[in-house]
Structure formats: C-alpha cells, structure tokens
Amino acid sequence: MPIKYMILLAVLFSGFTSTAQIKKAVSADTAIQFKVFGVCVMCKDRIEGILKVKGVKTASWDIDTKQLSLVYNPSIITLDKIENRIVAIGHDLEIKKAKNIIYSQLPPLLPLSRNGYTVEESST
Description:
It is a single chain. By secondary structure, the protein is an alpha+beta fold. It has a domain at 28-113: 2-Layer Sandwich (Alpha-Beta Plaits). 43% of the residues lie in helices and 15% in strands. It has helices at 2-26, 41-50, 79-88, 100-103, 119-122, and strands at 30-35, 56-61, 67-72. Strands 1-3-2 form a three-stranded antiparallel β-sheet. It is elongated and about 80 Å long. The chain starts with a helix and ends with a helix.
C-alpha cells in the first residue's frame, strides 16, 4: 500500500510543477520592435511618455528609424492596448492609424504628413 500512495503523490506533484511552469512562461517579459511614425524629439517624448504604464518595462523610440523598442509583460498589458495608446495620441503605426481628428490636433510643429499628403490635403 505505501507504494500506491507514493505513486499517487508523485503523479499529483508532477501536475503541480507543470502548472507552475506554464504560469511562469505566461508572465515572462516580451521584447518587440515596430514602426511608429513621428519626426522629432517632441514625438519621442509623447510616444515614450504614453507608454509609462503598468506592464511596460521599457519603451524607447528612435527618431531616425521610427522603430519603437518595447519590453512588456503580456499578462499585465496586451500589445493591442499598447498600440491603441499610441494611436490615441495621434501617432500612426504601420498596422493602425490615428483618427484624423486626433491627428490634426498634434502640436504646431506637426501634423506629420501621411503618404505624402498632410491631413488637410488627404481629407478632400
């Protein structure tokens, strides 16, 4: 009988350790890079500033390459929510665009051009 109990305990214990490993993998930080359109230091401050939220470990946007380097925890914040925060302040991504009303309210140095046209030219 003691052998049956030892086998039962071994089976139960292996189930608990595999569950713990799955949870650990989900909560790991994820590093990603993607393009965010902008032109200046003011854009850099806006983009990096909007990403100072729980779940985002680091966010660094390069003015020349337009690449945002991001480390975040997907169990706390999703990539979709991060992208939505960026377009909500008027900056386009390759896969998402800011609404024209928000885009047109960018600071005076901006708005940026979209596909070679300013917001005013593209809306006519």
